[in-house]
Amino acid sequence: MGTLLGEVAALGVAVALTSPVSVVTVIVLLSMPSGLRRAIAFVCGWLAALAGIGLLVVFVFHGQDFGSRHTTPSRIASAVEVVLGALLFVWALVAFRKRGRATGGASTPKWLDRVERTHWSLAAAVGAVMLSYALSLAAVSEILKADVTASDDAIAVAIFALTSMVTVIAPIFIVVFAPERSARTLERWKRWLLANSRTVVLVVLMVVSAFIFVRGVYDLAS
């Protein structure tokens, strides 16, 4: 169980590090009318998506024989890891090679301007959509192959959820606990993320996707 928790925590951190657009989205939401409410709704949408994944793990897939590497469910899970790892690695590598061709500085996504003119609850739907589902599926695969109890499945999903949202909830903590300097701090964060995060995200994604691919290939070959 300890190994599983370490693996899902690492995948959660990978989600957190590869979600700068989500962090920028939260920062922009905080600057809008009812900003704190919008940002919290975004996080709730993120968590709702993870809760849906957790329910599938505990109540739908749990009980199937993922424990042995030679069973059909386990081999399917490993094949999913191979496909996800390969696709993510190729996409990240191509994007990394093209990153220097972009001209001009990065800017805040224009679609966020439309969110300001909508009800704050729409931010929940945005949060659910912006979750990294590829890495979430990789975490699900690791949880299922560990073949632990349903309660341990739930704990693993919770650990993944908490670690995945570390960077997303950071701006909210700044606003709540340091409101007098939050505007300046968040603006500085936003500028840095928009200017520098692309390379960091792609490098992290290549490393994580390579690990997922190798892990899946190893399990299939065993």
**Tally of individual helices:** 10
Helix content: over 70%
Q: Whole-number average pLDDT?
A: 87
Give the number of domains: 1
pLDDT under 50 segments (min length 5)?
A: none
Order of helices and strands: HHHHHHHHHH
Counting DSSP E segments of at least 2 residues, the number of strands comes to: 0
Briefly note the structural class of the backbone. mainly alpha
Globally, the shape reads: globular
Structural Rg: 19 Å
End-to-end distance, in Å?
21 Å
Strand content: under 5%
Give a written overview of the molecule.
With 222 residues, this protein is an all-alpha fold. It has one domain. Helices cover 81% and strands 0% of the residues. It contains ten helices and no strands. It has helices at residues 2-17, 20-30, 35-61, 72-98, 111-115, 122-130, 133-146, 150-164, 166-177, 179-221. Helix 3 packs antiparallel against helix 9 and helix 9 packs antiparallel against helix 10. It is globular.
